[in-house]
């Protein structure tokens, strides 16, 4: 494949990685906030609702972190491919 293809693909992946960063950080902040709230709330219905929200927030944070990891792996693979194609 030609160098231009790899560079365009790398640019697209870097843009995607940069776009994921704010969402990932918001998800992490939501987890931290819910963890603090859960400690302060006595057991009961509200506690159960907070536990469900915390579980969902953790799942979202984990999903976004995994997406970031996958994009980083793709970037590394393309960079390696680009280096391997150089004479």
Please provide a written account of the structure:
With 87 residues, the chain is mostly helical. The chain has one domain (3-85). It is 91% helix and 0% strand. It contains 2 helices and no strands. α1 packs antiparallel against α2. The protein is rod-shaped and about 65 Å long. The two termini are 13 Å apart.
The computed structural class is: mainly alpha
Mean pLDDT: 90
Count of extended strands: 0
Number of domains: 1
Oligomer category: single chain
Rounded Rg: 19 Å
**Main pleated sheet:** none
Regions with little confidence, pLDDT below 50 for 5+ residues: none
Shape: rod-shaped
Could you state the order of secondary-structure elements as H and E? Answer: HH
Helix amount:
over 70%
Strand content: under 5%
How far apart, in Å, are the first and last alpha carbons?
Answer: 13 Å
Number of DSSP helical runs: 2
Can you lay out the helices and strands and say which pair or pack?
Layout: H1 3-40, H2 45-85
Helix pairs in contact: 1-2
Give a brief rundown of this model.
With 87 residues, the chain is mainly α. The chain has one domain (3-85).
Main attributes?
2 helices; 91% helix; 87 residues; mainly alpha
């Amino acid at each position: 494949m030609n160098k231009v293809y790899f560079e365009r693909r790398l640019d697209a992946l870097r843009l995607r990685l940069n776009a994921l960063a704010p969402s990932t950080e918001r998800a992490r902040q939501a987890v931290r906030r819910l963890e603090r709230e859960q400690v302060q709330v006595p057991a009961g219905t509200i506690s159960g609702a907070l536990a469900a929200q915390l579980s969902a927030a953790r799942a979202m944070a984990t999903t976004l972190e995994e997406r970031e990891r996958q994009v980083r792996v793709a970037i590394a693979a393309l960079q390696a491919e680009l280096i391997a194609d150089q004479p």
